[in-house]
Specification:
Helix 2 runs parallel beside helix 5, helix 12 crosses helix 16 and helix 12 crosses helix 17. The strands form six sheets. Strands 1, 2, 3, 4, 5, 6, 7, 8 and 9 form a nine-stranded mixed sheet that branches. The chain is built from 18 helices and 25 strands. Strand 8 and strand 9 form a beta hairpin. Helix content is 29%, strand content 21%. The chain is an alpha+beta fold and 672 residues long.
Amino acid sequence: MPTIQVLDSHVADLIAAGEVVERPASVAKELMENAIDAGASKVTVEISHGGLTFLRVTDDGKGIPAGELKTAFLRHATSKLRTAYDLEAIGTLGFRGEALAAISAVSRVEVMTRPADAPLGASLFLEGGVPGEIEEAGCPLGTTMVVRDLFYNTPARLKFMKKDSAEGAAVFAVVQRVALSHPEVSVKFIRDGKQELLTPGDGALQSAVYAVLGRELALGFREVKSGGDGIKVTGFVSQPACCRASRNWQFFFVNGRQVKSRLLMAALEQAYQNQKMVGKFPACVLHVEVKLSQVDVNVHPAKTEVKFGSEREVFNAVYHAVLSVLEGDRSHPQATFSPARPKQTPGQTTMPGLSAQTYRQLTVADVATPRFTPKPRPTWTPPPAAAPRPSVPKKAPYVESGVENLVEKVDNSVHPVENLVDKVDKIPQETLLNSKKLEKHAQVIPSEPQPQPIPEPVATPEPKDEPVEKPVHMPEPEAEPVPEVEPWRLAGEVLNTYIIVEQGDKILLIDKHAAHERMNFNRMKAQGYQAMAQTLLSPAICRLAPEEQAVLLSNLPLLEEFGFQVDDFGGGALAVREAPDYLDVEDIPDTLSQLAQKLLTTGHADPAAARDELLHTMACKAAIKGGWKTSPQELERVAQAVMDGSVKYCPHGRPVAIELTRKELEKQFKRA
């Protein structure tokens, strides 16, 4: 039988390094966080061969005194903590004192540093965690860390590294997240001698978003700014029409630290409920600031997860902040036309013998040639009621009651997101266009964000004879003056599906089915549809995971609001005696499992969210269909709902209207 013995210090360092240093991206993250904690305003990251053979991080921070240089590479040596009480309010990115010791244990490290009060700098070389002698060096203010030959002494870890391109992409993703977390720091990234990122470091988050995520995504963002009860939420979220196919574009930061949080993800996506398409996920860059004593960052080896002291308040703060932005956005997606492409015979890939100038002339001639001759169509004359009219006052947007009890619909298969982000602005425009169906010339892209002045809040008098119930967590938004709607005119309908509205120097195409579906959904929800509970002939026996069963049994009153009557059947099973009338018996176990996961993730669930799924179907069935002949009065009513802002997206997230400007039309007719 093997005897228990203390491991050699070198072996212990290698084991500890395995928890902190997983790949070159981990090294870049730890060194950049140290640079920011040192007060750097500029950080440069350079890598070669994916960061395995060479990784250098240079900053202009405070530097390390020569007498403390060797101490900095000892385990649990740090300048950020002194007592156990300091762990209760951690305000720095690093605090454990493990990073430098772990990095030096599995690589060859060279450091050069100079504080502001030192005339000369100092350099130190370490190999496998063993330091050499400290030498004087001429170097600028700040610190430069050079890490070479990562995992040279741990072949078992080295063989699991991916290709240089994959490891380099992971380092790039880390640099991007750090740049978004601290827009006041100018971040530069150089890979194999080529600069791939440079942020201005002007303190404006919008500048960092534009530099990191690119123009296309940045223009589809809307600014978020909210605060109250010690919780501040700022940043940007995407329009519902600009949602992405994955959660890789969701960036959450808590007190300047990039985190992966199911709670924040749940709050974000709940705000988009009934506004985004199924299978699409909103993009965001959200900064959440809470009191240091209300968040525990010492719950994960890589410090990428945090635990909040008041999860419900944080959930509500993020949810209301995002929801208020979505409800206040009155813009419509713009329609653009894909450029005509020169004709090409099958199998033809090049045009030998033609100069560049001749080729351009041929291309222009081909584009200028009409591709088809449109057949004349009978025009539709609007009725007298559709004549130009004065401005129509905007109706108050539909506000859902009991919103603080809502819960987000997140798949049970949510895993921690590895945000390996590719630069959007490096994708060729042709690739973006070819990813669509080219025969559809109109594409939907986000409209240009227009700066709007913030109106002064208007005090709303409240009746004195009725007590006003104050929100528990978030303050109610103050009433704002309703902007007047620019006069518009109903121009007609095409293809028995799309309503044409003229407003100023733009044209709106409205999908009458999608708009009417949202109108039905809002009306049914306002009427307070309630699902009925039906008694089952024989109880449905459901076997769930122990934690799911426990959380359901502790929330029996909530289950009754959903229409379930559940008992503990024993043996790790639940007996369901009543279920909602719209739910099939075979779907009961999956529904209860999803409900349990929501309770485990956010601590609460909303029966209205389950009813919304049913209302989606009912509203769609009752809506007018594309291709149907619709009376002018009905078209007028649908257009009115869209133009006054009460209808923006169908319940499934599709836009109800797209915008076509005069300038875009003139470009198509070569008038611009």
